[in-house]
Amino acid sequence: MRKSRWIGVGLTVSALVLSGCSAGPAGTNVAQDTKAPLELWTRTTPGGAGEQATKRLAEAFEKATGFKVQVTAIFDDFETKLAQRAAQRDLPDIVMNDVTQVGTLKSQGLVREIEQGKIKHASELTEQALKSNQTPDGKLYGLPYSAQASALLIRKDWREKLGKGVPQNWAELADLAKAFTTGDPDGNGKNDTAGLNATLSTKRGYASWYFSNFLWAAGGDFITETGGGKYKPAMSTPESVAAVQWFRDLGCKDNVIQPGSVTMPTPATNETFEAGKAGMYVVGPYLLPRFDKSLGKDKYEVVPMPKGAKNADVLAEGLSIFMMAGSPNQAGQDAFGDFAISADGQKIGMEGESAFIVQLPVNKNVDITQVRSDPRWKTYAEIYAKSGHYAPSIPNWTPVRQDTADTISALVADCKLDLKAELSKLDTKLTATLQQQGISAS
Amino acid sequence: MTVDHAKPAAVGADRPAVKRTPAPKARRRSDRDGKWWTPWLFLAPALILFVYFKFIPMITAVTMSFQDVQPYLGNQWVGGQNYSTVLGDEAFHSAIWHTVVIAVGQTAGSMIIGLALALLMEGQSKRLKFLRSAAFLPVVVPIAVVAELWRIMYHPTEDGMLNSILGLVGLGPSGFINDPDSSMISVIITGIWRGAPYDMMIFLAGLAGIDRGLYEAATVDGASRWRKILHVTLPGLRSVFSILFVLAAIRGLRVFTEVFLLTNGGPNGSTEVAMTLIYKLGLEQNRLGVGAAGAVLLFLATLVLTLFVQVLRRRRDA
């Protein structure tokens, strides 16, 4: 009995020692080995077209430089899995993910700074794409390799059947949404279509992501820079309130947003559009191949979002290559980034009708019209250049996106909520977040 | 003292004396128990796995709950700050309340329906065996599939599966998981649907252990079916109830997957439970220390509840 107690004590102490041993910082001064294979994670569906395209890029890179790359595609809970690997202090060498992650990754020390001098083709990057990867101090923590902006997808066959034009302003947009909802545009005799398809789940902050297409065009903002890298919350300004009110009315008064939107992440929302249950969808170009296949190219059209109260700004996004901390092959990381942003790398990334990972090129020397003949891509490129609006580069955008998503989703889910009071509460939360990040103006 | 608790020597003392040569003390112990380390040897594989995959992570989580966790920048000790952040967070308070509501709702619902199913399906008939297996299916279906099935059934328009049934009786359509007023009960119903068959099987095992003579005696005394359930079946299932209560309550407190997949805590935080909030804090917002503090608090709550039920049970048995 006494011995078994000692064994128990021994096990507990061992566990404490082991857990204590693993609590120190790591990963900054790792011995370098240029022959070490690079583990690359990309946020795309495993076995899908995005994975194929990434592997194609990796193969071309291996052939050109001699470095070895192992590609892993992960879609669901990508950031969660990355956080788990970070907790184990065993990050992949390269991560290809949304540019909005740059602040979070930097503040957690999960990425290393990129020295532009070591990236030969960095000077060829567009200013817009490059800036989106810089933190407020001007340092570069990610390399852009793809850009995109949102456009309005409309069921052309439905619109023509109902005798409506392409909406030129928000009133016409709402009018078309109402017609799609009540006018039986699919002709099945049932009241089973919605005007607008929206991703309003709080998962990953999708509701905020989606709503930004309306907020900025109305002159509102999530947070506003007051100068010197300081920010104040802006969801209670008259412009933001008006934008939220207008969008909420689509759901609460006009009932034109697809049922179940408040619990739908992007996969379910995409399915709603391609199943012919919704007539309009504000989304990036990466879904065109999918909808061409499932819905038919002739069934829908791609047009710029109509102008709001201020302008036609839409969400601009980018995909970036992050050089993760603790890599034993930093030379390989730099070489991969340099290859991916070069004109050759960009063209390889754009190859194919569906299996491509570069939506809009970020290299000034690549003209999309010469690579893709489909005029819809030109539409997207023009929207990105004229109206693309990136989320601001703050230390950590994730909590801002999540808090705003919670409120937007709640206001559409519960039409009884006091809109101004909820937005005021949201601003209080945003102030706390900004203070926590040391960038609050107040 | 019950016979179970009596020392073997004391039991042996009641037996008729048997003449045999007393063996040396050490040898007698060795014959009966083997070497002291023999049971540890058998336990070793499981213990090593448990230590590595369960206990070390648990201890690490406790350590992390006192730190600002930044694996690549170096963790900083922050004392009880993570705990005060969690305990001072309104979202955590409402998440705890939602967790309790779900735990109570699912536990009570699963036990009542599980008992009703067990009473209906008790017996030896082959048809009943088939029915029991069919009723048990929800337990073996992966929770992700269950959540997706219920999401489809909860479709919030008139042509949704459950709404079309509600429409037949002149009700609805309900928003189910999409409406903050009905989301909680919708999640609870999904949990009951999955948990009741599990409870049913344990009740069936308990029912088999009840002395049939008691039923016969009750019949002779002219007891109605309801009286038999009240005075024979329910007292006979007392230990089953306490086991099920502990299991279901722990399951309820740790509820995560169905909430995460059905609502992700929404809409408007109406179904946010402790586990989904801990997940969001720890893994989505990368605040692992705060998330760990929430997890430790949940662990303590579960531990207290389990001990409370055990003490209550022992007092009743005493």
From TrEMBL, chain A:
CDD domains noted in UniProt: PBP2_TMBP_like
Keywords: Signal, Transport
Recorded family membership: Belongs to the bacterial solute-binding protein 1 family.
Signal peptide start-end: 1-26
InterPro entries referenced in this protein's UniProt entry, alphabetically: SBP
GO biological-process terms attached to the record: maltodextrin transmembrane transport; maltose transport
Molecular function in Gene Ontology: maltose binding
GO CC terms: ATP-binding cassette (ABC) transporter complex, substrate-binding subunit-containing
PANTHER family: MALTOSE-BINDING PERIPLASMIC PROTEIN, MALTOSE_MALTODEXTRIN-BINDING PERIPLASMIC PROTEIN
Protein known as: Conserved putative secreted protein
Ranges in a coiled coil: none
From TrEMBL, chain B:
Its membrane topology: Multi-pass membrane protein
Classification via Gene3D superfamilies: MetI-like
SUPFAM superfamilies, A to Z: MetI-like
GO cellular component, one term: plasma membrane
Residue span, ABC transmembrane type-1 domain: 96-309
Major location category of this protein: membrane
Ranges where the record places region Disordered: 1-31
GO biological process: transmembrane transport
Similarity annotation: Belongs to the binding-protein-dependent transport system permease family.
Protein name according to UniProt: Conserved putative membrane protein
Biological source species: Amycolatopsis japonica
